[in-house]
Amino acid sequence: xxxxxxxxxxxxxxxxxxxxxxxxxxxxxxxxxxxxxxxxxxxxxxxxxxxxxxxxxxxxxxxxxxxxxxxxxxxxxxxxxxxxxxxxxxxxxxxxxxxxxxxxxxxxxxxxxxxxxxxxxxxxxxxxxxxxxxxxxxxxxxxxxxxxxxxxxxxxxxxxxxxxxxxxxxxxxxxxxxxxxxxxxxxxxxxxxxxxxxxxxxxxxxxxxxxxxxxxxxxxxxxxxxxxxxxxxxxxxxxxxxxxxxxxxxxxxxxxxxxxx
Amino acid sequence: xxxxxxxxxxxxxxxxxxxxxxxxxxxxxxxxxxxxxxxxxxxxxxxxxxxxxxxxxxxxxxxxxxxxxxxxxxxxxxxxxxxxxxxxxxxxxxxxxxxxxxxxxxxxxxxxxxxxxxxxxxxxxxxxxxxxxxxxxxxxxxxxxxxxxxxxxxxxxxxxxxxxxxxxxxxxxxxxxxxxxxxxxxxxxxxxxxxxxxxxxxxxxxxxxxxxxxxxxxxxxxxxxxxxxxxxxxxxxxxxxxxxxxxxxxxxxxxxxxxxxxxxxxxxxxxxxxxxxxxxxxxxxxxxxxxxxxxxxxxxxxxxxxxxxxxxxxxxxxxxxxxxxxxxxxxxxxxxxx
Lengths: 261, 338
What we know:
The complex is a heterodimer.
Chain A lengths: L1 E10 L2 E11 L4 E5 L6 H9 L6 E6 L2 E2 L5 H4 L3 E4 L11 H7 L9 H12 L15 H16 L8 E5 L7 H18 L2 E5 L3 H7 L2 E6 L2 E6 L1 H4 L2 H8 L3 E5 L6 E5 L6
Parallel strand pairs in A: 3-8, 3-9, 6-7, 7-8
Antiparallel strand pairs in A: 1-2, 1-4, 4-5, 9-10, 11-12
Chain B lengths: L1 H19 L7 H11 L10 H35 L12 H15 L10 H21 E2 L2 E2 L1 H25 L8 H6 L7 H19 L2 H7 L3 H6 L4 H23 L5 H13 L3 H25 L8 H23 L3
Antiparallel strand pairs in B: 1-2
Helix pairs in contact in B: 1-3, 1-13, 3-8, 3-11, 3-12, 3-13, 4-5, 4-6, 4-11, 5-6, 5-11, 8-11, 9-13, 12-13, 13-14
């Protein structure tokens, strides 16, 4: 679905990303994790085509990113950004409708908008003004917008990229958002790439975690393989204990309080 | 839909009000008969020749020009607000109009003329002035794909000051017959409107405005942010360039014909958003109708309030627009929208 090879990205002489390989297949949820400034968002921007890498190539479905017709690409790849600059009083449903831009006008679009709003639990807000919403509500509206952007009858695998989609959300909506993402991966065969800060969310919802440190790919693998106290301490420089979730047996990370000074 | 019917009706009503009022009062009925007889109908109504002359040679071109300029400035405001992703952008505030005025004043006073295009020299110079100011403001106000509003407004202040000084200097250097006075350039007037201007305005205001209508859907997407728009398949560079060119043609030619008329591009799209919401597919057509009406109403006031004298139309638009701008600022202080 997405194949990035030898990605490097520099600003001046400062290396932000260094020689990163990334392969994502349909149906999997890949979490990009790492400390602040590790290059997570930059990596997402490079593989989404927002930034041009200084070296390396990005292919989406075996076609080089720059060779894609951007309107065509918009129907199979959507990106949820961390922040949005929308400062005009659109109605919530109109914002979600913007996601249907790459498609021809049709009454089907209204149905899709409605469904996507329902998925993020914002259907009762559809006639509200976007600018009057809280940060977390806005984030969920934009999630609905990017979901609407990929909604199509064909079964082509889609690529969904989320940059810290949970940053403004409360506990239940953090779960809700990642639940939606993993549902789309399982049921609709989407490839999902999500930048996450919270290791426990990554542990609970991703199939694979990619750890970046100082612009380099440090470790990658299934949550149960890479979420070990050793690896976490190498990356974050903090002592942790890894427990197991009583329901799923997935790792749960807590800070080690016994030896911290 | 009802809003659009209302806006059309308002425009038609104001058009006839503008036809009939002025130094010579012509009844609406007589206006109708004069119009009918002009397009070839045989009317059995005693048409006054003076009235006919006033209506056909002065009032109608003036009315049409006011509608076109009002619509053009309003659509330019809506396009600018999309380009800067900010509801405070306005061709006057960010200095595009004053750049255009300087371009036009330079050409008039220095007597420049483009070979083979003499007639077009003035609008072309105004266009170039507008483009230069626009590029300056865009360079100074955009950082990392985001508009820094303070920079945009401050750059606008500086450009307005520089261009205003330049225009002032040109007026000072001008021979009396060369240049309309400074108030024309700073506050505008439709006093000189003739059919030739109407024809010119059709080409350089109506056609670009019409093209602007087709940008409305992409403009909605632009408001999400540049990166977001790109991810939705909008070719940003193309659209941004198109907007700049359209706005500069419309504003440049408006200014060269009628001087600087402030705040129209700020106020009208805002009012339209209150009426029809933020969707540019509705805001832009509504701006055309409401902008035409409002500028026509302002012109009517400017030429009837102290008859037979006229005062500059920019006084009317600024009296309404200035407080409106302050109100927007204070609303933002509470909501922190921008």
